[in-house]
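A reminder from the course coordinator: this example appears on the midterm review sheet, so study it carefully.

Given structure:
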């Protein structure tokens, strides 16, 4: 399945414009199964000038006036149970956020999600009975416990005006950029983070250009087993970073 909408306008109950969207694209979604590739793309989301003008004085008009692009993508292999999930949000000319997640043994989670969706669809607009809600929660928790997280990456990138945005936010809090940098440095000296991650955060607060954090988790271990290992390594940030193969870079 694939469809695309162009020139979408969102209006409030008073029929006044709230936002416009250049295009919305949906592809791959199926009713009765998890498709091997599903995708949602939203381009050019922008609040109307009238809506921005009504925001409180302490609102950040730079973010409120920006144009946004959003993209989500999931690749799923039913045979292996592997899945890759990618999410990106771009406030154009300000900042972009990317999140990528790789999972193994996700079949139980996908099937649980599908079953929950069908159950809710059959119920319509009515809330599910308490017994069914508890069944859903149990099914979901069991599926999550079987997951094997493999990789994760988070990336924050300055698209041009990010530094100005940070300075604006800090100014409303009565702080300068230099004061924020000093505060971060003090917190890093006490925070239980690895040396590499601390340096990446330090470099990012100085340059406000790019921050990337990634981890490659041990194969063959479930979410529960990894959480247990992480718990035993609490207070040993460098050893924990080595266990999850943590990599970090800041500019």
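Designed residues:
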């Amino acid at each position: 399945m694939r469809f695309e909408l162009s020139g979408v306008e969102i209006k409030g109950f008073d029929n006044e414009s709230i936002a416009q969207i250049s295009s919305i694209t949906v592809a791959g979604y199926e009713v009765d199964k998890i498709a091997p590739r599903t995708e949602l793309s939203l381009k050019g989301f922008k609040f109307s000038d009238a809506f921005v003008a009504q925001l409180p004085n302490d609102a950040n008009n730079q973010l409120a006036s920006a144009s946004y692009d959003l993209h989500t993508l999931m690749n799923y292999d039913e045979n292996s149970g592997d899945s890759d999930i990618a999410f990106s949000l771009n406030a154009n000319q300000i900042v972009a956020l990317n999140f990528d997640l790789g999972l193994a043994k996700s079949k139980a989670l996908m099937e649980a999600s599908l079953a929950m969706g069908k159950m809710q669809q059959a119920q319509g607009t009515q809330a599910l009975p308490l017994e069914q809600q508890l069944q859903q929660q149990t099914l979901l928790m069991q599926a999550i416990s079987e997951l094997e997280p493999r990789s994760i990456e988070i990336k924050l990138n300055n698209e041009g005006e990010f530094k100005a945005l940070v300075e604006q936010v800090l100014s409303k809090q009565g702080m300068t950029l230099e004061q924020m940098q000093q505060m971060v440095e003090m917190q890093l000296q006490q925070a239980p983070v690895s040396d590499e991650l601390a340096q990446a955060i330090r470099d990012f607060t100085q340059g406000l250009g790019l921050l990337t954090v990634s981890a490659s988790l041990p194969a063959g271990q479930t979410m529960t087993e990894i959480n247990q290992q992480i718990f035993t390594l609490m207070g040993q940030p460098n050893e924990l970073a080595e266990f999850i193969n943590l990599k970090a870079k800041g500019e």
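The chain has a mean pLDDT of 91. The first helix runs from residue 49 to 53.
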